[in-house]
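Field log, afternoon session.

UNIT: design team B
ACTIVITY: writing a sequence onto a fixed backbone
BACKBONE:
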C-alpha cells in the first residue's frame, strides 16, 4: 500500500508535536476513497457499555475517546453500536435508530476529530448472541441453540423472517447515514465474533434453504447487501470498513477458505478497510485462546491472525488491518515490514494503558503487558464474555477521568459484572416497557 504524500489537507491530520515520528508505524495511509489516516495505528473496537440503560450516548464516551485520541492514534473504532434498540448485545450499548441523540453523537465524534484522529462507528446487530432476558426475543439466521457451556446464558433464537432481514439491512444503512451527519469519519460493519453478520456467514448458525443460506455465495449475500445499503446512504467518499473473522474456530463454522473468498468479494465490492479477527463467544480466539498448535515463528511474530493476512494480501488491494496479540514496538514494525497488513489494531492494551500509542509511535514499548484474565474457574474462563466484562470495567475508570487497574482481580471483576449485567438487564427492560 503506497504511503500518502506529505502535502496536507483537512483529511491529513498530523500526530501531536509531542510525539516524534519514526518507522513504518508513523507513515500515513491513504484509503481507496482518498481519505488519509495520519499513521498506521488504530484503536480496535471494544464494547464500552457506557451508554444509558435506554441506549443513549453519554459524556463518559466523549471523555474516553478524547483520552485515546490525545495519544496519537490515527483511527478510533467505537465498540458495538446497535442499529436496533430491540436487539441489544448487552446492557449499556449505544443504539442509533434516528437523530434523537445527534448533539451527543456530534460531541463524541469531535472528541477524536478535533485532535486530528479519525473515528469510525462500529455498527452491529447481535443476532442470537445476546444474554437471556435483555431483549424480548433474539433472532438469528436459523434457530440453532448455543452449546452446553453457554446455553444457560443465551436463549435459543427464533429464525429471522425474510421481511425482517430486509428491515435489518435498511437499519444498517440508516444508522450509517446518521453517523455521517453527526461528523464521524466512517463506519465499520461488525462481521466477526459470532454476531448476526458472522452468523449469516457460518454454516453452523445459518442452515436456511432460501437465498440467504446454503452455499457460501448465498450466506455472504447478507453482508454484501448490508454493505451496499450503507454505501447507498453515505456515498463513495465516506469510509465503510468491515471486521471479519479469518475463521470461527468452531466445528462446522465459517472456515478460513470461506473467509478468503469473502474477503475477495468485499474487495471487489469496494470496501475501504478490512480488519481481520477470529473466533466467537463459544471459541474466543480474539482473546488469545489458542485453538490449534502454533508454529514457533508464528507465536514470535505476536499477531494472532497475521498468517491469514499473508494469505489474502496477494488477492486483494483493500488495506488490511490485523488486531490481536501485538505486544511490542519491534513486533509491530516487523509486521508492517512484512507487507501483509497496512494497519495495526490495538484493543486490550489501550484499556490498561490508554497512553500506549504515544510510546509506540516513538518506537518504545508500553510499560503494561496484556495478560490472561482468569478467575480460576474453568467454565467461566472459557467464556469470551469474561474478558470483555473485565476490560469494560477498566474503560469505565478511564471514562470517569481516572486510570485503569491492570492488576485487578478477575474473580471480583466477574462478580461485579454479573451484578451489573443483572441490574442493567432489569433496567433496560423496564425502560423499554
Amino acid at each position: 500500500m503506497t504511503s500518502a504524500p506529505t502535502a496536507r489537507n483537512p483529511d491529513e491530520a498530523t500526530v501531536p508535536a509531542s510525539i516524534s515520528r519514526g518507522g513504518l508505524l508513523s507513515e500515513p495511509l491513504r484509503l481507496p476513497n482518498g481519505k488519509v489516516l495520519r499513521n498506521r495505528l488504530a484503536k480496535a473496537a471494544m464494547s464500552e457499555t457506557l451508554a444509558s440503560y435506554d441506549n443513549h450516548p453519554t459524556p463518559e464516551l466523549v471523555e474516553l475517546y478524547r483520552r485515546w485520541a490525545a495519544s496519537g492514534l490515527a483511527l478510533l473504532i467505537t465498540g458495538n453500536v446497535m442499529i436496533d434498540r430491540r436487539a441489544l448485545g448487552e446492557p449499556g450499548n449505544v443504539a442509533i435508530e434516528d437523530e434523537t441523540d445527534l448533539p451527543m453523537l456530534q460531541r463524541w465524534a469531535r472528541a477524536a476529530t478535533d485532535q486530528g484522529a479519525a473515528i469510525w462507528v462500529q455498527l452491529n446487530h447481535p443476532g442470537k448472541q445476546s444474554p437471556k432476558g435483555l431483549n424480548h426475543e433474539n433472532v438469528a439466521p436459523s434457530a440453532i441453540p448455543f452449546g452446553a457451556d453457554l446455553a444457560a446464558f443465551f436463549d435459543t433464537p427464533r429464525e429471522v423472517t425474510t421481511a425482517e432481514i430486509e428491515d435489518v439491512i435498511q437499519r444498517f444503512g440508516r444508522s450509517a447515514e446518521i453517523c455521517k451527519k453527526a461528523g464521524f469519519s466512517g463506519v465499520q460493519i461488525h462481521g466477526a465474533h459470532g454476531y448476526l453478520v458472522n452468523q449469516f456467514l457460518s454454516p453452523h448458525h445459518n442452515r436456511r434453504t432460501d437465498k440467504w443460506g446454503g452455499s457460501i455465495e448465498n450466506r455472504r449475500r447478507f453482508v454484501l447487501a448490508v454493505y451496499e445499503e450503507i454505501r447507498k446512504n453515505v456515498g463513495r467518499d465516506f469510509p465503510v470498513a468491515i471486521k471479519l473473522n479469518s475463521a470461527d474456530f468452531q466445528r462446522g463454522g465459517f472456515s478460513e477458505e470461506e473467509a478468503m473468498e469473502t474477503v475477495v468479494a468485499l474487495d471487489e465490492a469496494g470496501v475501504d478497510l478490512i480488519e481481520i479477527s477470529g473466533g466467537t463467544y463459544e471459541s474466543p480466539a480474539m482473546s488469545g485462546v489458542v485453538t490449534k498448535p502454533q508454529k514457533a515463528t508464528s507465536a514470535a511474530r505476536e499477531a494472532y491472525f497475521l498468517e491469514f493476512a499473508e494469505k489474502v494480501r496477494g488477492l486483494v488491494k483493500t488495506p488490511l488491518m490485523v488486531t490481536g496479540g501485538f505486544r511490542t514496538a519491534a513486533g509491530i514494525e516487523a509486521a508492517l515490514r512484512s507487507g501483509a497488513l497496512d494497519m495495526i489494531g490495538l484493543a486490550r492494551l489501550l484499556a490498561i494503558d490508554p497512553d500506549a500509542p504515544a510510546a509506540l509511535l516513538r518506537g518504545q514499548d508500553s510499560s503494561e503487558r496484556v495478560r490472561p484474565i482468569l478467575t480460576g474457574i474453568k467454565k467461566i474462563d472459557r467464556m469470551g464474555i469474561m474478558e470483555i466484562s473485565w476490560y469494560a470495567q477498566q474503560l469505565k475508570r478511564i471514562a470517569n477521568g481516572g486510570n485503569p487497574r491492570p492488576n485487578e482481580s478477575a474473580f471480583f471483576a466477574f462478580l461485579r459484572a454479573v451484578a451489573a449485567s443483572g441490574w442493567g438487564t432489569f433496567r433496560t427492560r423496564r425502560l423499554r416497557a
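LOG NOTE: The chain has one domain: 24-371.
NEXT ACTIVITY: expression trials, pending approval
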